[in-house]
Amino acid sequence: MLRQAALWVAELDLALTATQDLDAYADYDWAVQKELERLLAKEGRVLDPHAREIWIPRETHYAPLYQGTYVEAFVADADAVLISKACKAPEKNAALITEYLAKGASERFFKLAKKYAVELERFV
Question: What is the pLDDT of residues 63-86, one digit of tens each?
Fold first, then answer.
């Protein structure tokens, strides 16, 4: 899981906007995709068909979220997700990044911001 869904799972103390789509890099059979789409629909959500286009840092850590017989799910770490948002859509995510900085961003976030040339001054 990537992007907003990953931030929900991280349970950060941030004001997150509700989203109906699930961003996920996926390597699964068609039947698994259809079942995931069915389960998401029951919750009023959809699988984002463009999730493969999302840029996320190479340093992203993925934590296990679910381990089943046929399916494993992992969630991207919050710092990588926030860097992705700050790099690729800074205007859209300005309030979220500003809030994260104000509440005490992690050292890892600052290192990734430096590496990927995120202009943090625009968020303060």
Answer: 999 998 888 889 999 999 999 999
Q: What tokens does 69 get? A: 């017989």
**Complete DSSP assignment for 48-71:** -TTGGG----TT--EEEEEE-SS-
pTM of the full structure: 0.86
Q: How many domains does the chain have?
A: 1
Q: Of how many residues is the chain composed?
A: 124
Which amino acid, residue 86? A
Give the domain range for residue 99. 3-123
Element housing 15 (H / E): none
Assigned token pair, 16: 């997150």
